[in-house]
Protein 1
Amino acid sequence: MTVIDDARSSRRNHRFLDCAVAAAVFAYNLPVQGFAVPDSAVSWIAYALPVGLCLPYVFHRRRPLSMFSVIVATAYLQLALGVELLVADVMLVPALHAVARSRPPSNSVPAAVAVAVWTITMTMPSMERYSMSFGDVGLLVLIVAIAWLTGMLARVRNEYVHSLQLRAEQVERDAAAAERTRIAREIHDIVSHSLSAIVLLSEGAAGTVRQDPDAAAAAMKTVRDTGREAMTEMRSMLTVLHSDDPVDRVPAPGVAQLDGLVERSRAVGIPVDYRVTGEPVELPPGLQLVIYRVIQESLTNVGKHAGPEVRAVRVHLNYGPATIELTVADDGRGTDSSSATGWGLMGMRERVLAQGGTFDAGPTADGFHVAVSLPAEAVR
């Protein structure tokens, strides 16, 4: 059975229960109806009163205010006709509860006052006949107050549960948005780096195909390998997205793949000087991915923005006692921060900040630099 089927079944059960309550009160009222009808009352109107008091209750879930208005109007008509208390008058209590449960105090408070006034006005003249005391009248008014109060508490509870549901849905939407951002960032890093390398290699091969066919062929082989590697990474990401089994998840690139990244960058003409200092430690996969992507994106930006005059690109990864420092600096023509917008610098910054680190990037006197600092507590 689906959720929709459950909801439909629940609504049917509610309707059956509401009809059963109204029918039971109406049926119980019939044997005593004649004792409450004065001789002066028009008999068919007097006997129609229980219908007006009971039948509207069937609609209290869909039209609570309309339901209450009909019932309370019938009750005041009963008072005007001089008809004494009926068993069906008890329907004022659940009717008031329904209004308090489903409507704000601006509606439920006047409804409670109307029922309380009717109760006092209806019972006071009959106190002697029914051997009632003022305490009995007060008890009836207390029942009215309890019906209103329990309805109000139910309304507050329902609103609280609804707010929790909305909050849970918002958390789910935020998580989905964060996941989409993460996926978009990964796709950008994979595609941007690979395409930049392919473009640079293709341009180099096109310029040397006649003068040095062997070099052009080697460049095109690197283009093929770069494209295949990008396809493998994309396929791995899609596998992760479509599989809930951790066994199927392909490890993300990390510090172990940095040597290969540097070699591929050198193959496309970027003169990378890669150094590692300090005592290397085992890093969590998430942090390794951050380091890899920052270096990858920085080298991609060098290929796109530094220009052919770049002579050195220094990549330095230092394992310190308190922090892990990463710098990427080049001596090319560089670019200003405002022109390096989009997923590049923003994606690097978001990755680093998510690990509790600091990120700085911008032009220098002789090029462009990226500096990252990550807390050692996050990796040990």
Protein 2
Amino acid sequence: MAAHPDHESHLVRKRVLWVVPVMLGKRIARNDRSGEERESWARTILVLFVPWRTPADLKVMGESWTAAYDRQQQHIPPQHRSIIANMNVLNECRDAR
């Protein structure tokens, strides 16, 4: 990629070791709620499971996070949808205690 302005000082490399992203702050919101909590859930799921470089890759200007999730959910692979479902069950169990 010699045409890139930073090609002499930057590189792209595939990680050798797997890493797990850790969300800091409050627990992941629930998707079965309405309003603000569902918006927060949709934003978190898109950030974790949809490839992106800029926020515009996730949602267009003026679009809600829920609408962006509804539009992009078909791009989430089945194995990732299974992980999302497990995350939702974990949240339901925590709330039931």
Protein 3
Amino acid sequence: MGIDENIMNFIYGEKKQTPLQYREGDIVPVRITKLVDFGAFCVTKDEYLTSGLIHISKIPTDLHLHTMQVIDAEVIRIKEEDKLELSLLLHEKKDTPFQVLSKIKEPLPEKTVPNNEVEEIIQYLSKEFGIVSEESKKEVEEMVKAMGVFRFTMILNKTLPDFKRDLVYHFLKEMKKRRDGL
């Protein structure tokens, strides 16, 4: 048989079908060859180079494909002419049971203190001590938020009888601190 006959036989002769090596459920490496609106065409990355389609419904929404990308795919069905129908859903990120619970469970309400409660505490302090500075008001708000109204009030009531209300006393105490630092 001459070379021309071999070429003619190759072109027009019966194609030898290699038995397809895939079964449904197999995971095979594929190369994405073309992206289209309805999915992605691909070819297996082995000696058979079997073509297939990955329908858009079988591609996870958070998975971004590009041509020439090699990725593992699951064989869903083998169609006529040994074409493969494939899925990439095996790459879908599955939530752990704790993640599922955290999505279902409502977030705990944040600890809030009604503004009128803080304002009443500040008014009480101004009656006891006089003018309350903005810095002190913010400090009261932070302490009430951290401790809660009840606990703050309890500590206030325990501290108040022993506290020296003499402003000069506190001023001199501050001066002594600074003197010791010099």
